[in-house]
Structure formats: structure tokens, C-alpha cells
Write a structure and sequence with these properties.
The protein is of the alpha/beta class and 304 residues long. The protein has ten helices and seven strands. α8 links the parallel β5 and β6. α8 crosses α9. The radius of gyration is 19 Å and the shape is globular. The N and C termini lie far apart (44 Å). Bound molecules: zinc ion.
Length: 304
């Protein structure tokens, strides 16, 4: 117990330190001159949204009211609540739960102007053809739709091919298929393929395939989610964390060059709402310009 508390204390001290430096950067970078400097020096950019988070409606830690309260306290500009819409999950399996979920977000985002809250969901890819666990009828009620590779994704995370080349080709083919899903907004933590056997590391993807995917994502307006806890998806591989970061940055640069847009996220339930420390590092090192960061204010909101 003592240990847990102490760890909790250390963790919150670190968060305070991080918040302070981010605030310092934001305060220093205001006004038109600063905006210019920001474009010239993307390293100083801080993205103040979290567009991939979970609540008790799937595997998140907190109920929706507390989740939104935290987003307000942390002074985030915007969050998307994106609980899992996958076979076996509440909002996928029950129409009533899905409507309760939307109504609860609607109710608790109203009456405050501190943070923009989007109604979202995270679907999962079912195979390499672009079939996903969400249908257009449910998607029509959502403002921000993500899709990931997970345990239901045949040919990638499910029944992973023993041949690594075949594996990485399947991953890219799946993402190319997702680009054709009209209602899909963003690909959640792309290339989360390090915990399988074989593991596919970012550097295992041929640049030719990445360029092809990046061009299609840009053309179809599909957003690249730079998720803070990407290391989670590589903890069973033997890649060193800083090597993973370097490889991921190199990969992200290819997508930047093709004009793909980006979001940052905590995928909260793992590292805490608004904790996008690693994401910010990647966005900065890959030189993502402000113009290629999603602006949540431009996302259409629905009343339902
Ligand atoms: Zn997620």
C-alpha cells in the first residue's frame, strides 16, 4: 500500500513537471510572431488534444462524468471518447448500451465550455479486405471513428503469418482496405505489430509499401493516431524503447511527406487521460507541421 501511494505520488509529481513545461512553451508561444516561430521550429509545438480514450463503457478506468471532469481539469482543448465497438463489448453487443453511451456523453459535455468532447468509438479490423466491426448505421451517430488492428484481425494480429514479409504485407493491405471505409476517421496506433510472433517492427515495413499507404491515407483523409503507449505493443519484442522511438519517427516522416494528417492520444486506460508525452516527442521529431495536425473544432458535431 505504502509503495503504491509513493509511486502514485511520484507519478503525479512527474505530471506536474510536464504540465508546467508545456504551459511554459504555450505561454512563450503566443501572438503572430510566435506562431511563425512555431512553424519554423515544430519541436516547440504542443498538441493539446487527446482523441483516443476509453471509459467504463469498455476497458477504461473511469465513468464518463469523471472522464470529462478530468479533461476539464487538465485543460485539454478536446477529447474523443472512443470506447471499443468490437464483438463482446457493451456498446457493440447491446443497442440499449450504445444509446445510453451516446446520451451520457451528450449530457455531460453540455453545460460546459472548457473542453470539446467528441462522441467516438474504436472499431477493429476483421480481415485484410477492410471489413471492420462497425457498420454505417452506428457510425452515423458518431463524430469520431477509429479502427485498430486487434485480436479479431485475421491475417495480422489473429493467425499471424509465420513469414514476416507476408505479415507486413497483410498489415499494409488491411490499412489500405480501411482507407476505403467511408465513415472511418482515423487508424488507431498504426503498426502495433510488435507483440506477435514473428514481431514486425517499424523498420520491417518496406518504404515502398509505406509510401503507397501514406498516399492513400492522404487522398482519403484518414488520420494517423500517434498513441502515447506505443511501447505497450512492443513489450514482448526485444526492441529497446529508444530504438522503437527512432524507428517510429522514421516511419511517421514518410506519412508527413505524403501529407497525411495526425492526431495524438493517450488511448487512456493505460497511461492516463491527456498523457501524450511520447506522442508529442514523435510529432516533434518527425517534424509534423501544425497544418497536418487535426483541428477538433472542425469536426462536425451531432445532436442525438
Ligand atoms: Zn483504444
Amino acid at each position: 500500500m505504502h509503495n503504491t501511494n509513493r509511486r502514485g505520488f511520484l507519478r503525479s509529481s512527474a505530471a506536474v513537471a510536464l504540465g508546467a513545461s508545456a504551459w511554459g512553451a504555450a505561454a512563450a508561444a503566443s501572438g503572430p510572431a510566435a506562431a511563425q516561430a512555431e512553424d519554423a521550429a515544430p519541436r516547440a509545438m504542443h498538441v493539446n488534444h487527446d482523441l483516443h480514450t476509453h471509459t467504463l463503457y469498455s476497458d477504461g478506468a473511469h465513468p464518463i462524468p469523471l472522464h470529462i471532469l478530468e479533461a476539464r481539469a487538465f485543460e485539454l482543448d478536446a477529447i474523443a471518447i472512443t470506447d471499443h465497438f468490437t464483438p463482446g463489448s457493451k456498446i457493440h453487443d447491446s443497442e440499449d448500451e450504445f444509446h445510453r453511451y451516446l446520451a451520457e456523453i451528450e449530457r455531460h459535455r453540455a453545460g460546459q465550455n472548457d473542453v470539446l468532447v467528441l462522441k467516438g468509438a474504436e472499431a477493429t479490423a476483421l480481415d485484410a479486405s477492410g471489413r471492420i466491426s462497425l457498420d454505417p448505421r452506428h457510425a452515423a451517430k458518431l463524430e469520431w471513428v477509429l479502427c485498430d488492428l486487434g485480436g479479431y484481425s485475421e491475417g495480422t494480429l489473429a493467425h499471424t503469418p509465420a513469414d514476416k514479409q507476408k505479415y507486413v504485407e497483410n498489415v499494409v493491405r488491411t490499412y489500405l482496405g480501411l482507407c476505403d471505409v467511408e465513415f472511418l476517421n482515423a487508424i488507431a496506433h498504426p503498426f502495433n505489430t510488435g507483440n506477435t510472433r514473428p514481431a514486425a517492427l517499424p523498420a520491417d515495413y518496406p518504404e515502398r509499401l509505406l509510401r503507397e499507404l501514406a498516399a492513400k491515407m492522404a487522398a482519403k483523409g484518414k488520420v494517423f493516431d500517434v498513441m502515447n503507449d506505443t511501447i505497450y505493443w512492443f513489450h514482448r519484442s526485444d526492441i529497446a524503447p529508444r530504438t522503437l522511438t527512432a524507428q517510429y519517427v522514421a516511419l511517421v516522416k514518410i506519412f508527413v511527406k505524403e501529407g497525411v494528417k495526425f492526431q495524438v492520444s493517450s488511448d487512456d486506460h493505460r497511461t492516463g487521460l491527456g498523457n501524450t508525452r511520447w506522442s508529442q516527442l514523435v510529432v516533434a521529431r518527425a517534424g509534423v507541421p501544425r497544418s497536418q495536425i487535426v483541428d477538433p473544432k472542425k469536426i462536425k458535431r451531432l445532436d442525438n
